[in-house]
Amino acid sequence: MSDNPYAASSTRLASGTAEQHEIVLASRFKRLVARIIDGFIQVVVYLLIIYFIPSLWGRFMGEFDAVPQNTNPSTFDLFQPFIFAYDFSLLSLLDFLLAMAVLFAVQGYFLAQYGQTIGKMALNVKIVDHESHEKPTLTRLFVVREVGMSVISIVPILGFIEVLWIFGSARRCLHDYWSRTIVVNAS
Predict the structure, then answer these.
(1) 128-180: per-residue pLDDT in tens?
(2) Of 3-17, 65-79, 118-132, which range is least confident?
(3) How far apart are CA 139 and CA 146, in angstroms?
(4) pTM reported for the whole predicted model
């Protein structure tokens, strides 16, 4: 292990394994870029789906028409409908479920096969169990980690706090802790 305080954190597998592999935690930057790539892919696929379902597209466009028109709007007035007036209706729940179905359709195969999303594959990082360093089950990868992260991010401040945990020495967000995973460089 390096004495360099700026080097990536690493750990070794337990000494009963046939080979010794060094596990290097993925950098915060790689994790951020991977999440941005995954988010972009999810939004594009989601918009394509709702574009081809007329009732969803009409409702989606109607949400933007509902923004109040002021002659002299303040910044608070512009963002207020999106931040504080989220409609927790059955339709909102269905939208969330559709978004999760899209996420699963796009990323589920890669999570199940490789423990990686498309963004993580692009940046050569993967999700592993924090103790065994093996690929976690799809339930832990998708339901606990991805859906859990999406649910918590609905609440604006909680989503921000959840991500701030990445700045700890273990480089794990809350979703990493509750799914018992770490993100490492893929070899």
Answers:
(1) 999 999 999 988 988 888 888 888 887 778 888 888 888 988 999 888 999 99
(2) 65-79
(3) 10
(4) 0.69
The answer to whether residues 56 and 102 touch, using CB atoms and an 8 Å cutoff, is no
Q: Is 94 exposed, middle or buried (0-12, 13-18, 19+ CB in 10 A)?
A: exposed
Give the dihedral sign, CA 109/167/96/53. negative
Length of the chain: 187
Which residue(s) pair with 94 in the sheet? none
CA 102/CA 12 separation, integer angstroms? 36
Maximal C-alpha separation, the chain: 71
H-helix or E-strand containing 129? strand 125-129
> Position of tokens 């480089």?
171
